[in-house]
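Workshop exercise sheet. Pairs work together: one partner reads the sequence aloud, the other fills in the structure field after running the prediction. Swap roles for the next sheet.
Pair: D.N. / O.F.
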Amino acid sequence: MKDPTSPATSKASGVAWPPIAVPGQGLPRDREARPAIGGPPSDAPSLSSRDSRPAETSAPTTASDSAGVPAPDGPESQDSGGPAGEGSALLDDLRTAIGRYVVLPSDEALTAVTLWVAASHIQPGLQHAPRLAVVGPTKGCGKSRLLDVLYETVHQPMMTVNTSPAVVFRVIGKNPPTLLVDEADTIFGPKAGDKEDLRGLLNAGHQRNRPAWRISGPEHKPTAFPTFAMAALAGIGDLPDTIMDRAIVIRMQKRKPGERITPFRSRYSVPELHALRDRLADWLVPQRGTVAGAVPKMPVEDRAADTWEPLVIVADLAGGHWPARARAACLAMTRNEVVQDEQTTLKTRLLRDIRRVFDQEGGREALRSQDLLAVLIQDAEAPWAEYGTKGLNAYHLANLLRDFGVSPANHRFENGRQAKAYARNQFVDAWARYCPDLASSGPTAGVPARPTQGRPPAPPSGTLPTGPLSGPAGPRHTR
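Structure field:
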């Protein structure tokens, strides 16, 4: 059986390409006679015709994943938008096209992005508008490229980097756009400034009937502005918990040397993606009334079920192997975020405990790594004595603090001895962000936000002990 994830091929040759398309505009839409796309250049992907592609035999769904979950208009194996298998084949084509331009972190992530794009075409009939959080640890992970692909395939895209909240309030209506927000750290990061209105809009817009009230017009009347709209946000590092909790999280990574993608070029990429977008609209726009009453069986509960429900609805409409694939992706990605949350919570606990150690030691400017470890491990109510196999060590400590921009540095104490140490001023920024209830206490006034990268902190004014702060000697350094 043909692999649905393999690139689509076309036997057509010698067919003239349509005029060069402009990204974001593409070609005029003509449902009656769409331009044939064939004979691409050597680096261009080819697109199989909607009418010439045979319906594929799909893998049966398992009882544990989809038993008792019929599609809103019929059994799962029947596509309610046309002949049996048409919706499934269309999602296969979309999945292949997305995977051609972007390397996503997992097979489940590729499935989720595919279904999210399709769900944008039925969002006027949905109860929830899931966010797509496209995050990565550094630049160059493909976040912006994924937004480029989304822009050409989602329903009525609205790309923004620094748009005024007032503009977004006014463009969202009964048929809302799909918001695509690049460089989201300019909204949620330290340079956010006056963007709290946009942040609140993105939080409220996850659920229908959560309007934002503003004084508007020359008569200054209270006016309710709708906020309900699907949104994809891309940025470096995790977004705020209120966004991540409402989002399908795509954790992008840099490509490995052997991972290759097709260059995104407007002359062939835009026509191909627009053809898929139009096929999605033809199939899903007539289903908006149907999906409004759909109640699919979900493998998760609560907020996660609200977020994933639109994707599962689309999968059930498509039928074939998509209902099982969507639920498997939902479980895998939801569990992965639970693990991420637990790790984040542990790191926040570590920041709080280190703050208490610095405060208990009289506001010293630096503490030796081994002294800090000794105090942390002696806390019977903390998890550090049982962390790992032999308790928290210097390697674990540095690894847990790396995401906060904190690392040990060589520090020369007043007795002339040099040792690896953590400076208080390294933690000021992280304390203010992740445990602000403690950040205002203690002698931190006048301390710079962060030391220069790679430069050791200034010598402390006081004298630090060369041995442990209290109790027996600290644990041996483990490499």
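Discussion prompt: The radius of gyration is 27 Å. What would you look at next?
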